[in-house]
Design brief:
Chain lengths: 328, 137
């Protein structure tokens, strides 16, 4: 049977998405049999050259968010050559954890990382990407002003959300590669995940109407294993998060942080959750409680950005730093 | 520059109160700056925060005007729903470097035409001070 040409290239990654493939174990033999790996830095020996010289690739898989100019070039090259492009992992799909950096200006980040930290010795205040480091004959790629999900630049054919995607998703993607050998092309826009929210796959006991009396953090007191986290006042992004992870955090008695990205038809996962959780706070008792007390209860959520937009800030409506409060 | 800058305000107005208040201001011929684009909504409890954010991205400030708490909302607690959502949303905005004053929630009854005019005037002045909303490009 014909071998499928496959390439993997990277944006801003942590390495976890590569490891997710390794977790697939024996199934990797099926992948090795079905595919000729043209380029995949963590897996096969090879140079950028090999990818550049290859005219056509059957399936290109991109890990990571678009953080530097170099990432953007890598993505555009992969798209151009690939019949099918896969956004693998939450960083590629929604910006992921690196996207949280959009709450700070890149300039400020660079200064912090390369000048201001105590352990840094950089008397001229040189910033990578902006100056050449003659000593090392090195030119590092420039940081973009924003972290972006890949769909901001290219069409995505298959989405594999998850940070990292679970083994089941990797297995399904390997099956897609095998199907390609028989010219079975998956529908465009395929999600290797569920079409419903995580709550639909969670076995905890859910309340008819959600009411939260006060918020509490995971380390504050006992967490009941059989009751919905939200009912216990613990932030859980299940209602706005796409199912498909096998409720792995929930089973470990930890709430969902939203790594599978928004459920279908929700554009802004964080804002949708923000509305929902605000509605549930003291639901139906607001009149008795009053505005001042409600404000105090809301103040007990110190970090809506980090809690609600942890994986999707770069794909949200407010996806960047604004400059109203400088000097703050 | 701030002398010439005319802020643009998108206003979500509850039809029972804020919108009626605006009407009242109109029929009483009260003067207020022509800075607002009104959007009539059935109740402030029905305003989607995603719409508020989209509105903010194409304006300089968003006004939401609804029925007085505790008891005036026609749907019992829509005003409180909105209050809770906006209070939380403002915390997020601040974290993203947006001055939370750019989203303003006011309770304005159908008879308070005067208050409506005053709020628009005040908000316009405040936004003039702040200047246009600018994000990282
Ligand atoms: S999606 Fe998660 S595991 Fe994959 S590169 Fe991003 S941070 Fe790492
Ligand atoms: S909010 Fe969390 S704990 Fe509650 S049902 Fe949904 S996923 Fe389960
Ligand atoms: S429970 Fe939520 S955060 Fe945990 S793996 Fe599933 S989608 Fe991701
Ligand atoms: S009806 Fe006016 S705020 Fe609910």
């Amino acid at each position: 049977m014909r071998k499928i040409k496959l390439a993997v290239d990277y944006g801003s990654i942590c390495g976890g998405c590569d490891v997710a493939f390794i977790d697939a174990g024996e199934k990797l033999i099926e992948l090795a049999n079905a595919a000729e790996i043209v380029f995949w830095p963590a897996v096969v020996d090879g140079k950028e050259e090999d990818l550049r010289k290859t005219r056509e690739i059957d399936i290109g898989i991109f890990f990571g968010a678009i953080r530097t100019e170099r990432h953007k070039e890598a993505l555009e090259q992969l798209r151009e050559k690939s019949r099918i492009l896969v956004a693998f992992g939450t960083c590629a799909c929604y910006g992921g954890i690196p996207g949280l950096a959009n709450s700070v200006e890149s300039r400020v980040l660079l200064k912090k990382g390369y000048v201001a930290t105590k352990s840094t010795d950089n008397p001229d205040g040189k910033l990578p990407g902006f100056e050449e480091f003659k000593e090392a004959a090195l030119r590092l790629p420039r940081l973009r002003s924003l972290v972006s999900p890949i769909c901001d630049f290219v069409d995505v054919d298959i989405w594999v959300p998850g940070c990292p995607p679970p083994v089941e998703s990797v297995n399904k993607l390997i099956d897609v590669v095998k199907d390609l050998q028989e010219d079975q092309v998956p529908p465009k826009g395929l999600f290797i995940a569920e079409g419903r929210s995580l709550c639909d796959f969670c076995e905890r006991e859910k309340p008819e109407v959600l009411r939260i009396k006060r918020f509490r953090r995971v380390h504050e007191g006992e967490i009941k294993r059989d009751e919905c986290f939200l009912k216990q006042g613990i932030i859980c992004l299940g209602p706005v998060t796409r199912g498909g992870c096998g409720a792995r955090c929930i089973d470990a008695n930890m709430p969902c942080r939203g790594c599978f990205g928004p459920v279908p038809n929700v554009e802004d996962q964080g804002t949708r959750f923000l509305s929902a959780v605000a509605s549930a706070l003291m639901a139906e008792e607001e009149r008795e409680v009053g505005e001042e007390e409600l404000r105090k209860l809301i103040d007990e959520l110190p970090d809506p950005l980090g809690l609600f937009y942890m994986y999707s800030l770069a794909a949200s409506i407010i996806n960047r730093r604004y400059l109203d409060l400088e000097g703050d | 520059m701030s002398e010439e800058f005319e802020p643009k305000i998108i206003a979500f107005l509850c039809r029972w109160c804020g919108y009626a208040g605006a009407d009242m201001a109109g029929t009483s011929r009260l003067k207020y700056p022509p800075t607002i684009t009104p959007i009539r909504v059935p109740c402030t409890g029905r305003i989607d925060m995603e719409h508020v954010l989209r509105a903010l991205k194409i304006s300089d400030g968003v006004l939401i005007a609804g029925c007085h708490t505790p008891g005036d909302c026609h749907y019992v607690r829509g005003n409180f729903q909105c209050f809770k959502r906006v209070t939380l949303l403002k915390k997020f905005l601040k974290q993203m470097g947006i001055n939370p004053a750019r989203v303003r929630l006011e309770w304005i009854s159908a008879t308070e035409g005067r208050k409506f005019a005053r709020v628009i005037k005040e908000f316009t002045e405040e936004l003039k001070e702040l200047g246009p909303l600018r994000g990282v490009e």
